[in-house]
Design a protein that fits this description.
Blueprint: E1 2-6, E2 19-23, H1 28-31, H2 34-40, H3 49-55, H4 60-72, E3 87-88, H5 98-110, E4 116-118, H6 123-129, E5 136-140, H7 147-160, E6 163-168, H8 183-192, E7 195-200, H9 206-211, E8 220-222, E9 242-245, H10 253-262, E10 270-274, H11 279-295, H12 297-303, E11 305-310, E12 315-320
Helix pairs in contact: 3-4, 4-5, 7-8
């Protein structure tokens, strides 16, 4: 394969400049030192990784690791997105696949601490992978039906002292699967984890709310219905960048009055109330809500907070100025 480079014409010469072919082996990427190429790889998405590996022999080990893992898992038409940039283990892993997955995990770990999604079906394999896990994980417990297995995942991760980017307790069928008897386990392990950036926990129970200030590094919380929000338990120790409430908020004056009065003392910086994908419902809510905001104007001004409508994301946003 050849590409062409233009040669400048002499001054006053209006002829078309001649071109000279340059072999593909002279491409700039081929002459880049490994230290530079290593910085490129973390920015390559799943749509481009195979093409890049074919174009540059230096990255051949990456495509080999992806292909070997896919072949071992008998993925004839494997979606590269299952293996790059996040290795998603969503099924029981045969023992013979462990070496190939370890090799891929090492590649992921060396290239930006790419997230790995873990599910309870892989607890046995997780024991052998735990020392190889990248620095930032997405721990997805949403496939679970039995929290007695889930808490073993948290126990192993707590012992490994890894960083967790997202800890997801959302059950696929929308039901709560963490029984009241297990909430003490959840709270205890949240405190033991090295750091958790984001927690997803619909219908967040009060014991977990109370345990959140002890979670290291926690910045974001997806908490399900806003009407489980404990106004009287959220003080300055609850320092989060964002709390997102799912479902559709309903205007209930007592709840919103308590919410406004708690803003002055909370350490949270932003509340987002989502309305799905229905902007009409958001507008209907806002039409009723504006009168309430006007009546609470002095309290809101004193708190340093202000509400706004985010039409692009169909949400009501409260922000601390």
């Amino acid at each position: 394969m050849l590409f062409e480079i233009a040669v400048a014409a002499p001054p006053g010469d209006r002829r078309t400049p001649p071109t000279s072919p340059v072999p593909a082996t002279k491409r700039p990427f081929d002459r880049m030192p490994p230290e530079i190429l290593d910085h490129v790889l973390p920015f390559v998405d799943s749509d481009s990784i195979v093409t890049l590996c074919h174009a540059l022999p230096y990255f051949k080990h990456v495509s080999h690791a992806i292909h070997s893992a896919a072949r071992c898992l008998k993925k004839k038409r494997a979606d590269v997105r299952q293996f790059w940039p996040s290795l998603r283990l969503s099924e029981t892993i045969p023992d013979e696949c462990a070496p190939y997955l370890r090799a891929l995990i090492l590649v992921l770990k060396r290239n930006g601490g790419t997230a790995v999604t873990l599910v309870p079906q892989n607890i046995a394999q997780l024991r052998s992978f735990i020392s190889l896990l990248p620095d930032n994980l997405v721990v997805d417990l949403s496939f679970a039906t039995n929290f007695s297995e889930d808490h073993l995942v948290l126990e192993m991760l707590a012992a490994a002292r890894v960083h967790i980017r997202t800890l997801d307790f959302e059950c696929n069928d929308g039901d709560d699967y963490v029984q009241d008897a297990k909430l003490d386990l959840v709270c205890a392990f949240l405190a033991k984890l090295k750091s958790v950036r984001r927690v997803v926990f619909p219908n967040l129970p009060l014991p977990v709310w109370q345990a959140l200030p002890a979670v290291n590094g926690l910045m974001e919380l997806d908490a399900g219905s806003c009407y489980d929000f404990p106004h009287d338990r959220v003080g300055s120790s609850m320092r989060l960048r964002r709390v997102l409430f799912g479902g559709e908020a309903v205007f209930e004056e007592t709840w919103w009055t308590n919410f406004v009065h708690c803003l002055k003392s909370t350490g949270i910086h932003q509340f987002i109330f989502t309305f799905g994908t229905n902007p009409q419902k958001l507008q209907q809510f806002w039409n009723s809500y504006r009168a309430f905001v006007g009546a609470q104007e002095e309290v809101i001004a004193a708190s340093g907070w202000s509400p706004r409508v985010d039409e692009d994301n169909c949400a009501l946003v409260w922000e601390c100025s």
